[in-house]
């Protein structure tokens, strides 16, 4: 498994490809919502297995988002590895608290990583979410 900050055009396109497959095709989220125009303000991450892109995440300020793994690669530790990488990266940038909007069905995944749910359920792209935070140590 090779996780990296997406810096080259290919890495950025690989990152966007993963998000397109998971959020636009699989979850049927509208293109304009998924690619809302903030990517140039974010740090983008991509995960490869044997040279093929399989996972993605992004960090905007102290907010993690767009964490995605291709369906056939789920439950193999890719999401956890991506989150570990993003957290180490954030700490290296002086960030001490991360937040994210977790889709309700994967809230327990983030809880296992030490994130704490806060507040009421809200909807983004017609999907129930919950705000979660984690203090980085």
Structural descriptors:
alpha+beta, 137 residues, 4 helices, Aminopeptidase
Characterize the structure shown.
With 137 residues, the protein is of the alpha+beta class. It has a single domain (2-135), classed as Gcn5-related N-acetyltransferase (GNAT) (Aminopeptidase), CATH 3.40.630. The protein is 31% helix and 38% strand. The chain has helices at 9-26, 31-34, 78-92, 107-112, and strands at 2-5, 43-49, 52-60, 63-69, 97-103, 116-124, 127-135. The mean pLDDT is 96.
Short recap of the structure:
This protein has 137 residues and is an alpha+beta fold. The protein has 4 helices and 7 strands; from the N terminus they run E-H-H-E-E-E-H-E-H-E-E. Strand 4, helix 3 and strand 5 (97-103) form a beta-alpha-beta unit.
Largest sheet: 7 strands, mixed
What is the CATH T-level topology?
Aminopeptidase
Strand content: 35-45%
What's the CATH H-level superfamily name? Gcn5-related N-acetyltransferase (GNAT)
Give, in spatial order, the strands making up the sheet with the most strands: 1-2-3-4-5-7-6
State mean pLDDT (0 to 100 scale). Answer: 96
| Uncertain segments | none
Query: Portion of residues in helices?
Result: 25-40%
Q: Look at the structure and give the CATH class.
A: Alpha Beta
- Shape descriptor reads globular
- Gyration radius, rounded: 14 Å
Q: How far from one another are the termini? A: 25 Å
């Amino acid at each position: 498994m090779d996780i990296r900050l997406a810096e080259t055009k290919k890495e950025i396109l690989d990152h966007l490809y993963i998000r397109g497959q998971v959020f636009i095709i699989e979850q049927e989220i509208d293109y304009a919502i998924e690619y809302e125009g903030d990517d140039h303000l974010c740090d983008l991450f991509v995960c490869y297995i044997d040279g093929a892109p399989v996972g993605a995440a992004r960090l905007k300020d102290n907010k993690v988002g767009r964490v995605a793994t291709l369906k056939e690669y789920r439950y193999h530790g890719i999401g956890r590895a991506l989150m570990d990488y993003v957290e180490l990266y954030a700490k290296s940038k002086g960030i001490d608290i991360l937040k994210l909007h977790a889709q309700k069905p994967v809230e327990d995944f983030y809880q296992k990583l030490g994130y704490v749910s806060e507040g009421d359920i809200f909807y983004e792209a017609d999907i129930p979410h919950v705000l979660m935070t984690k203090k980085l140590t």
